[in-house]
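Blackboard transcription, Thursday session:
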Amino acid sequence: MNRTALIWRVASFAVAAGFIALWQLIANLKLVSPVFLPGPDRAWAALMRGFSSGDLWSKLAGTLEHMAYGWLAASIAGIAIGAIIGSSRTMRTYVAPSLEFLRPLPVSAIIPVAIAMLGLTQAMALFVIAFGAIWPIMLATIHGFAAVEPRLYEVARSLQMSRLAVIFKIALPSASPDILAGMRLSLTVALILSVVCEILAGLDGLGHWVLLSARAFRSADLFAGVILLGVTGYVTSVAMSLAEHRLLAWQASQR
Amino acid sequence: MTGNSAKALALPLAVLVAFEVWARAIHLQSDSLAPPSAIVMALFGAFADFSILTATRDTLFSAFTGLAIGTLIGLAFGIAFGISDTLNRLMEVTVEAIRPIPSIALLPIALIALGFGYRMEIVIVAFACVWPILILSRAAVRSIEPRLMEVARALRLPPAQRVWKIIIPAALPRIFVAFRLSAGIALIVAVTVEIAINPLGLGAGIMLAQQALRPDLMLAYLVWIGIIGYALNILLTVAQRRLFGRAALSGDSP
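(Written on the board underneath:)
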């Protein structure tokens, strides 16, 4: 069984390699102008050159930093606010409908408001990223708190646990799968908003790098940046899956 | 029920009134905030000179065209991958390599290849919409009752008819859920592209209002974008309930 899976994997990689070869062929034959489409060889060379000169490292670090700070701030605030709203029935009836109304708002529309308040600064980027990333986490927390098995609350009442103890010992652990799923969604939002903010505010990061490369028609550098952004998206989401798996291992036996 | 909706409205109303009173009390002069009354006036003004209507048309045109193209591509691949396990396994690495690229990262590529305008925005929206449709329609096709496929085989339906008469009707409720998700994404991506770079539509309108130091107009645009997002969501949720009833609910919590 394991062996067939491995063979499929290899075949799948071979197909992907085939597509890259096709890309190379198209670029070599100049079916698409090389100004727009560099071959994979040139993109790879640009990637290596960027790394060896250190340029790309610092851009990558910049993007990761924006993403991480915004996402962490959103996670902490989202779980805290979500817990406050979710653990009280009164808050749920008064506040949750407003949140549901705000949810479909395209979060990037908050960017001009943030620029007007904070200017084209790091603070603006962090505010926008955190604001965008907080929604999935907060709504998932509220939902997770509302969906806690009611008998657990009855147990808590009969044990006369305080509200804080109920939140930390019962509600949070029971809502953790929802919360982690929300945090995973937010990770993508944080990456996209980091790139947008870097493009708009010229902050140090991959977003700024790809825009500058495009403006100068350095398509190889541009593709190197886009590839790196794809890798960033992939690696962060895999890391999140691993963390989720680890953190929820205790639940596996119950499900 | 009316009691509950009154409670739901209490908070936003209280915030609006408090904001209005506060803004008037301190004679607010700001580049970033405006009292709600001024925002409403600016919204009416923008409606009166049709500027916001033109911008809405531009944004929705790009979003829906991109959504349509992305849905067709995603559906074609999703159904193909759902039917053929071989194809799905062979394409796995390729799909997993392209999917995590944030749609907005394609913006500079689309910019140099297509220039400013509708086309580059449509391409980016379509790219963003392909993935949810592909993934969910693949899952929907796979979860089709196996006996339906047996019937198709027993009837010796040719592949085209098998897709058209069995697979699409059986998977449609869950495909519509994917479509609803993608419609939200399409609007978000369209507005984001406009805010970041493309000089047209609502996103450009809100950026222009900010640069012109018109906080009332900027917030009016923000409110309007929110209303459109909310209306689109409600419309599609109602359509889903009307068209498919309970059948669609199974796909809502994957």
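Lecturer's comment: The first helix of chain B runs from residue 2 to 25.
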